[in-house]
Amino acid sequence: MKTLGVIAQKGGAGKTTLCIHLAVRACGAGLGVLMVDIDPQGSATAWWRRRRAETPALIQSRGEVLGQVLETARQQGYDLVVVDTAPHSSHDARICAQLSDRVCIPTRPAILDLDAIGATTELVAQVGTAARIVLNSCPPATFYGVPRIVTEARQALRTYGIPVSEVAISQRAAFSHALIDGRAVTEFEHKGKAAREIDRLWQVLSEELEL
Ligand SMILES: Nc1ncnc2c1ncn2[C@@H]1O[C@H](COP(=O)(O)OP(=O)(O)O)[C@@H](O)[C@H]1O
Ligand SMILES: [Mg+2]
Hints:
By secondary structure, the chain is α/β, with parallel strands linked by helices. It has a single domain (2-206), classed as 3-Layer(aba) Sandwich (Rossmann fold). The protein contains 10 helices and 6 strands. It has helices at residues 15-28, 43-50, 66-75, 90-99, 111-116, 118-127, 148-157, 173-177, 185-188, 193-208; strands spanning 2-6, 33-37, 57-60, 80-84, 102-107, 131-135. β2, α2 (43-50) and β3 form a beta-alpha-beta unit. The longest helix is centred in the last third of the chain and has 16 residues, at 193-208. The radius of gyration is 16 Å and the shape is globular. The chain starts with a strand and ends with a helix. The model has no long low-confidence stretch (mean pLDDT 97). Bound molecules: adenosine-5'-diphosphate and magnesium ion (MG). Residues 8, 11-17, 43, 87, 136-137, 169, 171-172, 175-176 line the site of adenosine-5'-diphosphate (ADP).
């Protein structure tokens, strides 16, 4: 069993969005997936309650008992656990990073978001878990190429010493529309651009997790 922790101490970075989409994509690859929602706001849980499909499984929990939850998940035979975390809780973020095989740190490409990512990258570096930053909610590439804000964000993120995923997730209406009735973009518009981005990100992360 592998555990992917999604951490960013900034609200609105895209933690829940990435957790949901990666978990659903992993189910599509035939894996047994458990989402663990340790954000007291429970956004992933609210999405899951609207969902008709039976997978992924989801459990609401707390950072303090995450270790036990993961142990039970292992005994139950899950292949992948995806942990959604709260912003503003360095305590839970640290526990999640410690217990994860890999950490994914979403951030928007805007300067205020990039400024805020330092606390998260520092925490992950202290714990020592392999991590990857994923740019989320980026303006999509156009005929003229990758928008400047995205290339500048990549450059700015170099100072943190954590690799930035080649795959950037764009700002697309499908990412929020799909969630309304408990779906993900790979189900909502499975040949759409949003689904393709999630496919590519999943490709990279699943290889890193050796799934
Ligand atoms: N790539 C995206 N495209 C469009 N909307 C997005 C995207 N990523 C996030 N959002 C929207 O931005 C808001 C915050 O995202 P969310 O995943 O809840 O962030 P976090 O869990 O880090 O607080 C939500 O309304 C979500 O639907
Ligand atoms: Mg969230």
